[in-house]
Recover the amino acids of this structure.
């Protein structure tokens, strides 16, 4: 059986006629950059997310960069980021000649550890970028409280978290001063190329980002500031407008699949309680745990938690002998990926921030995650047979190791 990590063809088949109509509409209009499609997408996303302003941009990376530019992040400023994320979270800080300051992560959720964040705040700290990794909220209450107490601005990296929510159902990406989303094709809401979105409730910040999106020009050809080309294409907006109304269904599919995986792993005796952080002999697989469970001690339903609505952009388990398992699964036709194999503090480009020979032991939780984590196929259209096959093959591998 073949189980790819992600198969976007099935999703396209489901909505093919709607998509093709939308693409034709844009092509016939010959209006390709920004314009009415993009404005309608911005309105629809603002309504969906429950925020005052949204700005459609060229990518998730550019959303982060533009938010930092609008906050006037400059050389010498420090911006706190988790040590374990996609490169863009830290890369955008360095591109402004500011200093990314890495924090270790929470061993259950893989998200920014608020305790480490608190220790790393200095008089130069201007912002913190919590990432809602894999589609699950970072500890936003604590992060927002610590940041507010020290005058630090919170920019959420919600690239993997569209549709996820925190307490009282508030959508991720609307809790900080600005929220950044990516519409890269593998995200839960993906376009047919690159795209991104910034949210904010702050009208002044919005106005500034709006101007910076088009080279800092307002009116046209008059520049009070230096921006860039951060514009979204109308074709991408048209695709996203077709997809947005389907997002809730696709999210349900991912959550159903996540619950099914977790049930099968437990039934096979490979995993017990979620929320555990270390391996025991009886527990060869650590399941992804929802924050809710680790707080309440309930194992009833990570996937059903009403407080922390996890959208499973990725379903990431931790195992020993991860690389050997990955090769084995690949031979069995099962696609997997490592998000992420090298934490920021071990990247060569950041070596001068860390100091020679200091990388070892600085971020033990992030190092452990990089060594043991593996993402399994989780997209909505997977069949129960496919999920059963993945679990069976993992069980087979673990038994062969004993
Ligand atoms: C995908 C992603 C980004 C960057 O988005 P692009 O649209 O690929 O530029 C940033 N941060 C995180 C956590 C991501 O997963």
């Amino acid at each position: 059986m073949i189980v790819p990590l992600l198969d976007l063809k099935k999703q396209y088949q489901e909505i093919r006629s709607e998509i093709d109509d939308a693409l034709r509409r844009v092509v016939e209009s010959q209006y390709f950059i920004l314009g009415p499609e993009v404005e309608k997408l911005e309105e629809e996303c603002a309504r969906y997310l429950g925020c005052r302003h949204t700005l459609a941009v060229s990518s998730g990376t550019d959303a982060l960069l533009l938010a930092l530019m609008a906050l006037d992040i400059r050389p010498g400023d420090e911006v706190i980021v988790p040590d374990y994320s996609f490169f863009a979270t830290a890369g955008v800080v360095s591109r402004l000649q500011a200093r990314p300051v890495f924090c270790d992560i929470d061993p259950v959720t893989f998200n920014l550890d608020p305790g480490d964040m608190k220790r790393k705040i200095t008089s130069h700290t201007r912002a913190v970028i919590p990432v809602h990794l894999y589609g699950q909220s970072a500890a936003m209450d604590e992060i927002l409280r610590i940041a507010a107490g020290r005058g630090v601005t919170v920019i959420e990296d919600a690239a993997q978290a569209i549709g996820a929510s925190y307490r009282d159902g508030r959508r991720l990406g609307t809790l900080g001063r600005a929220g950044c989303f990516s519409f890269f094709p593998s995200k839960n809401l993906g376009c047919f190329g690159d795209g991104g979105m910034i949210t904010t409730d702050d009208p002044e910040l919005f106005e500034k980002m709006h101007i910076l999106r088009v080279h800092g020009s307002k009116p046209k050809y008059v520049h009070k500031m230096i921006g860039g080309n951060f514009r979204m294409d109308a074709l991408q907006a048209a695709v996203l407008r077709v997809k947005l109304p389907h997002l809730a269904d696709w999210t349900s599919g991912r959550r159903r699949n996540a619950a099914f995986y977790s049930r099968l792993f437990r039934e096979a005796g490979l995993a017990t309680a979620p929320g555990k952080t270390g391996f025991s002999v009886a527990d060869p697989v650590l399941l992804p745990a929802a924050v809710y469970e680790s707080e309440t001690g309930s194992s009833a339903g990570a996937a059903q938690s009403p407080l922390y609505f996890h959208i499973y952009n990725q379903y990431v388990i931790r195992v020993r002998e991860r690389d050997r398992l990955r090769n084995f699964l690949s031979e069995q036709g099962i696609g997997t990926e490592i998000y992420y194999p090298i934490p920021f503090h071990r990247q060569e480009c950041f070596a001068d921030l860390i100091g020679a020979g200091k990388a070892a032991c600085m971020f033990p939780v992030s190092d452990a995650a990089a060594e043991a984590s593996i993402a399994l196929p989780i997209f909505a259209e997977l069949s129960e047979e496919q999920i059963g096959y993945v679990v069976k093959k993992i069980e087979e591998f673990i038994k062969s190791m004993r």
Notes: The CA atoms of residues 341 and 370 lie 5 Å apart.
